[in-house]
Amino acid sequence: MFISGQKRKGVKVLKMVSIVINGKEVEVPAGSTVLQAAEMVGIDIPRFCYDPDLSPLGACRMCVVEVKGNRLLPAACVTPVFEGMEVNTESEAVIEARKTILELLVANHPLDCMTCEKMGDCKLAEYCYRYGVKESSFAGEKHQYAIDDSNPFIVRDLNKCILCGACVRACEEMTGQDNLSFLYRGFDRKATTAGDVDYIESDCVFCGQCVAVCPTGALTEKSMVGQGRRWEYGRIRTTCPFCGTGCNFDLAVKDGKIRGVLSNPEATVNGRMLCVKGRFGWDFIYNEKRLTTPLIKKDGQFVPASWDEAFDLIAERLNAIKAQYGPDAFAALSSARCTNEENYLVQKFARAAMGTNNVDHCART
Amino acid sequence: MTNPINEITEHAQMMLLIGTNATEAHPVIGYKMRQAARRGAKLVVCDPRHIDLVDEADYWLRLKPGTDIPLLNGLMHIIIKEGLEDKAFIEERTENYEELKEVVASYTPEYVAELTGVPVEDLYAVARLYATTDRAMIFYTLGITEHICGTRNVMSIANLAMLTGHLGRPGTGVCPMRGQNNVQGACDMGALPNVYPGYQPVNVDANREKFEKAWGVSLPAKIGLKIPEMFEAAHKGTVKAMYILGENPVLTDPNANHIKEALDNLEFLVVQELFLTETAQFADVILPAASFAECDGTFTNTERRVQRVRKAIEPIPGQANWQTICQMVTRIGYPMAYDHPHDIWKEMASLTPSMAGINYDRLEKESLQWPCPTLDHPGTPYLHAGKFTRGLGLFQPSEHIPPGEVPDQEYPYLLSTGRILFHYNVTTPYSGGISSVWDKEMAEVNPVDAEKLGIQTGSLVKVTSRRGQVTTAVRVTDRVLPGVIWMSFHYASTPTNELTSAVLDPVTGTGEYKVCAVKIEPI
Ligand code: SF4
Ligand code: SF4
Ligand code: SF4
Ligand code: FES
């Protein structure tokens, strides 16, 4: 449906048209939008409501451009290219229009960037910086919404919402949960749950897709609050340990500790989609009940032991049992949760070291 | 899976789901099914329970639990009767069609409707839809394999796909969705009693000689014990010692009491685990395990896609699992030494033709679906293009096999079990966030039964089978049929598997988790 998606899947788009962007003549696939065409030649057009993984909305007007012969400033994210089109993405009129949009947003935005979770990864702040918008000439009322942090996973601060609707579309088009929509009108307009209740009271399944697409600090991961600035995190791409779908995501690591899971758009199977387990279930890693040292049972009680003591005891008992009863008195149960490499070693352990084919795993459960 | 997950949204015109609650067991696959259905692909859900995807479905075949084979036979009966079978495909690529025809002949729509409870007109509609849709995919999971007749169910599904030529092309295929993250990989790696990595049988001399040479020891030719046989042998005292890595059969296997007795009977048990699980309690030595975030390695997903698992933090017990295994085995007297999991993979791949083309360097750039025999091979997104592994596809028809245990006067309810979205066997209960929201079993009971029993949502009940008894809270909902109680198996406080049946599928040894008889008493 969208050019960027098609490119990823290797579908060839055959017909090309030539257009002029910012004075440069370029060839782009017919059917692209101006925003996509600009992206292909390395020109970044600001956008709030556009998201490559969601249906186009054309609502925020941040992406407006000047097109020769058109007195209005069309929105680049929903305007298709045509042969001979001449586009200016940063003309004076365009910049003026974008500044006005930013000033209107800032007029009703808590300017607490210094403590905001998304600082460093917020489109509103990025574009205010780009266009030098410091404060608003539109004095006005500000929202005073209560922060929704009644669930363990997501913090929702709608005072920071810019009504781009990405969360609404992600919930509907990615997850299909239809848990969010726009309610109320005018100043009171709100992207929220049916009945405007907290997430925990709604039909939310906590997939976190809305968080992954939100361009501001309105929706954030609770586990990451106060843990670090976005740019401080190392991102380690890995595969989800919870089901056979094989979703990929990034573990956000700071100071040797995992603080959250972030979507990775390159993930082959799932793109930015995850479920509650993959996105929020990782904290079992730091459960205080984790075993940290070998344990040996003595008189019915588990007693901490060194690795050496544990290995010595295992070697002695397994060798004795093998000597007395033969190799088939041993059986190994491997794990459908562990890696391929670990499974390979376990079957090699049973076969090569113990001399038995008594090895299986709980595939059947 | 014969076909890739992404074909759901890219190619499929129809999805036939049998006994699979995808939005809960494989959520992201479930999302994709929903997307495809909303985009216009037809969706048929065969499930006794009102699962979420029923709301997106064109047809919901609410069959009685344990009647999958008659349903499938009934669909094939109609397809053959109406001449909708793919004659060219049957002719060129299959054998034993005559026997199939014979077996399904007696499964008339009327007879099948009576056995399954699915209306005759729905049987006709779905049979015609599947047979006449060019690109149709079938999905199934535990709902199908966790029956006494699990293997037969799987064969019946394959029969249906072959009958209509829905194999070997994009947007078609038979897609079993594996439950745990690396079930596929554990099988591929030879953690099975009859095969080495890559499904190379241990009782074929050439295979054994190859591995003997590589591993420098002589290897046994005798096929080993499957899980239920291991526990049976432990009961009898012929298996004396076990090593268990990262599994908790006491909580997840059917008939938990039997497993506990077996473990108790062992002379020596080693468990390598993250937590002091119900199973680890029985150990003589526990080795602390590292989690997925603490190890390098690979997982293979349900579509045979090999993907990297990367170490993000230092192992909490001080060393990665592969290091622990190597040190332990070396101490036992068989030297095992590798510098990195990549070396383990390389050794495996050098012995496994279907994986030979995959290595970590390639996986840095792409994920690959095996078979991938050479370094320049692109991997295999869908199987059975042109021909089946065994040459011709074999029709293996089955008669209806009634469940091993059915409700009676003393145990009048049918217990069915499954997975819920928020949990994943053994690790999620240790997630603070997840367990704070979903902290206890909520067994599902139909309003009709709830009224009879005088219970409401939140009431506590005792559920008793011939094998054990558990206590659980209930949720009253018409998601389940009258006469059925549905429970998950995620909670140590309600160990559902103490109830489930000891009847096993004779071929795979899978426990019959899905169906057994129980009584319910309010407390
Ligand atoms: S977490 Fe998922 S289900 Fe909940 S509102 Fe966000 S997108 Fe919708
Ligand atoms: S919450 Fe975020 S994603 Fe949703 S409308 Fe507001 S800014 Fe956009
Ligand atoms: S994120 Fe959810 S759907 Fe994806 S692999 Fe993990 S558990 Fe499965
Ligand atoms: S990004 Fe184009 S209108 Fe919002």
Give an overview in words.
- The complex is a heterodimer of chains A (365) and B (523).
- With 365 residues, chain A is α+β, with helices and mostly antiparallel strands.
- Among the domains of chain A are: 7-90, Roll (Ubiquitin-like (UB roll)); 233-288, N-terminal domain of TfIIb, CATH 2.20.25; 295-364, no CATH class.
- Chain A is 25% helix and 18% strand.
- Chain A contains 9 helices and 15 strands.
- Chain A has helices spanning 3-9, 34-40, 92-107, 123-131, 166-175, 209-213, 276-280, 307-325, 340-353; strands spanning 16-21, 24-29, 66-67, 86-88, 154-156, 180-183, 190-193, 219-221, 234-239, 248-254, 257-262, 295-298, 301-304, 330-334, 359-361.
- In chain A, the strands form 6 sheets. Chain A has a 4-stranded mixed beta sheet, with helices on one face.
- In chain A, helix 3 packs across helix 4.
- The longest helix of chain A has 19 residues, at 307-325.
- The radius of gyration of chain A is 27 Å and the shape is elongated.
- The two termini of chain A are 39 Å apart.
- Chain B has 523 residues and is of the alpha/beta class.
- Chain B folds into 4 domains: 7-177, Dimethylsulfoxide Reductase, domain 2 (3-Layer(aba) Sandwich), CATH 3.40.228; 178-224 and 290-373, Rossmann fold, CATH 3.40.50; 226-287, Dimethylsulfoxide Reductase, domain 2 (3-Layer(aba) Sandwich), CATH 3.40.228; 413-522, Beta Barrel (Barwin-like endoglucanases), CATH 2.40.40.20.
- A 6-stranded mixed β-barrel of chain B has the order 16-20-17-19-18-21.
- Chain B is globular, with a radius of gyration of 24 Å.
- The chains are: A alpha+beta (365), B alpha/beta (523).
- At the A-B interface, helix 5, strand 9, strand 10, helix 7 and strand 12 of A face helix 3, helix 11, helix 13, strand 9 and strand 10 of B.
- The structure holds iron/sulfur cluster (3 copies) and FE2/S2 (inorganic) cluster (FES).
- One iron/sulfur cluster binds next to helix 5 of chain A.
